Amino acid sequence: MSLCGGPGPAAASSPRPRAARMARRPELLCGAAIALGCAFLVALKVTCSRAKDVTMPAKLPMNFFSTRSPVIDLFRGQLDYADHLRQDSEIALYFFYAPWCGQSVAAREEIERVASRLSDQVLFVAINCWWNQGKCRKQKHFFYFPVIHLYHRSFGPIEYKGPMSAVYIEKFVRRVMTPLLYISSRSKLLDFLSNYEPGVIGYFEFNASPQPPGYLTFFTSALHSLKKDYLGTIRFGVITDKHVAEEISLVNSGSVYLHRHVNTSLIYPNDDMNYTAENICKWALENREMLIRWLRPHGGKSLLLNNELKKGPALLIFIPYNPLAEIHPLLDEITKVALEYHNCNKSQEAEPDPKHMGDNDSPAFHSYVPDAHIKLAETFSITTYPCCNTVVLPQWHSISRTHNVCELCINQTLGVKPNTVNVPHCNFIEIEAALDSFYLQEHTFFQVISNTIECSNFLSFYSPFNYYTACCRTVNRHFLSFISSEKTILQTPKVVFSSHGKKDKDDIQNSIPHIEDRNCFIPHLHISGTNITGLSCRTNKTLNLYLLDSNLFWIYAERLGASRSTHLKEFAAIVDLKEEVHYVLDQNQSLIGSTLENFIKNFSVLYSPLKRHLVDDASVRFHIQHVITEVTTSTFHDIVLSNEKNVLLLYYAQWCGFCASLNHIFIQLARLLPPDNFTVARIDITRNDLPWEFMTDRLPTILFFPHHRKEQSMKFPEDFSVNLPNLLKFILHYSSLSSSAPCTKECLHKETVLQQGHILHLEKEIQKLRSEISALHQAHNHLEAQLSEAKREEHQVQQQKHMLEKQHKTLQLHSEQLQATFDQKNRELLEMAEKLQELADASENLLKENTLLRILVASREGKLQRKDEINEALQPEQKLSDDNILVSTATATSEEKRIDIDSLETEHSSKNRTE
After folding, report:
1. What is the pTM of this model?
2. What are residue 353's DSSP bridge partners?
3. Quick one: which of 154, 153, 151, 155 has its CA closest to 278?
4. Contact 93/122 with Cβ under 8 angstroms?
5. What is the DSSP code (8-state) at residue 144?
6. Helix, strand, or coil (residue 535)
7. Which helix (H) or strand (E) holds 850?
8. How confident is the model over 660-717, as pLDDT tens digits?
9. Which residue of 126, 293, 716, 737 shows the fewest CB atoms closer than 10 Å?
10. What is the C-alpha to C-alpha distance for residues 684 and 273, in angstroms, rounded to an integer?
């Protein structure tokens, strides 16, 4: 067997000693396992490295624009072909899109609208920059879509970043088509200069040459400004008439003039800067005036508004705006207000009007300051053009024990110099520096204790060339009042001060600012009451003015408090991000210049009559059947402050998970406390604003407002866990505290009765809780019994499941056996069918042979019959031929024997076939 390759006894017994050796040395087994594992990893790596990634090829792009559109659609990203088409056009617009981008799909219709109007002057090309085999995808790497690029001959690209609206896109395209406005007459020059946008004018004489020196540079600078400022806030114009240029003091050809409304206009300094397009554009952008600015935020989450609001208080004006319209009456009115508001040249007065100052009807003024007008005149005569502000001394300041108000002025003789038109330039930063120096030298004014005005000069701590003047005095509580005239719009509430700088109780909510307009605290000082001219320079609450198109950005107006049901989309609001307040212009008033002026002036006064706009969730409705009362901005005063019950208020927000976990505790608490004496409420502070003294910066926060002592509200301690026992102790402790007034016997009796009522109510609630607890125990036992029964049923079901699985396996085995038997019988039937077919074929052959034999027998019989006839005919001759007859007889006998032998063989073969 070993010679045939079979395993012999020695070979069969050889693995056992190996296994024994490996068992005695397990490190061999571990080494073999590690070797096999490494071999498996190597084989797997080789196999995977040979495999190829199978990716489905991208579908071919399709037309993004219709074939009838005036826009040429290069949907396969043929950027080179687009550049070839641009060579024959003066102005070209490229619209880069991605077919899957929803914003590209939305902007497609807008582009078609612009192309239908300007296709005869501008080449419009749309390029699919997402197709991975196109040149646009390989050369351009855009991270957003759509992108619009404009080309003016060889200059470009100029990217358009404005709203994807047809009117705005067309306006920008027209600005690229004509970057310079031709100013041919004095009237056009005045129209150009009266616009609120900054204007740059170039003067070039075309008489000497068809293209004067510097003109192409100036033309390119206009295109550069559009490239850097897509809003197009700077307009460029060109003058060719010498007499028109003399109106703005342009004499030399090639001069560039920057017009400014408030500050002095400028002429491009050719001596200091090179005359290049980039420098002209940079110079214009750095020195322009932005009296009013358009805001066009991108999307609802843009940071543009946030960045602008951080710069200071902002007046946001929403108006419907059509950039293609030639006349904008409402915009002209707003522009006029903005120009007057920032025009500080007419805002300063040389000195107060002594005549007006002498007309005083207040007896307090005559009794306490008899020589006030003389001393004020001496104070303001220090310099011809003073820059002054009134300082209200804070209560913590040492001077405030004797003085309440000081008039702080900068000496303009040694300090800030007047400009060329003899108008002082009052800088708020220098006022702040003067204020710091004033506080540092407070000892100078310590000995001044007088009801009259006492003035003193002191040097600046920041500059040895500046000194300031401070005139301080004590203001009597019945002395100071604001000017309230029926003819003026600047109507402020009367506020009085005590000798300690405290306000009267009638005006608790107002706050005294640190530094304000100088004319607010000087009684009967002549000011231009209703005049808004230069108001931005006369207050430290200067507004930045912004315009927004309400057709595009009305959602921001609604967030600020605009009505959603209004049809006229005009709205104005003042937002002060630092103070966290904003004021809304009454929408019942029409948005015109006069209402805007009043709105600005009411905000600028010291004690503004404007009411802070509080966000209120109008969707909340009060339901009396609710256990916890939902509080909003409009219902806060009635439910919390004016309510004669003890109120427990929870501050929460929808996103606060900890607040939601307290709901069941407050529901239990509301059911425990008697509803006649306690109210459990909550307020969503993300949707409702409250006065500052009731706001919080932490969630959740719990405040308790006791009955008859709402001003002594208490906050639930943060270091205590919020549960039912702690809340009950907190409420019962602060609700039982007595008021500051002494309590009489009747009061004590009422308190005792009230406490007994509370105790009885709590005992009843405890009994209810005990009954509920017992019911819960019973339900718990019942549930446990049901659970045990369910477990038993589950066990039975598991047993039945196992039995069924066994039966299923047995049936499966029977099924397999039956299938095998079926296959075997099927094969036998097939074999029998084959045999039957063979028998059928054999029987058919036998039938054919039988037919042949019959034919042979019939022929033989015929032959025999003919032979008999022949024999009968030859009988006379029989005798003569006996020998011949014997021979023939012998022959016939031999033939018959042969035939018999053949028949026997045939029968024998047929029998064999049948068998």
Report:
1. 0.55
2. none
3. 155
4. yes
5. S
6. helix
7. helix 745-873
8. 899 889 998 888 888 888 899 999 988 888 887 888 888 899 999 988 788 888 899 9
9. 737
10. 59
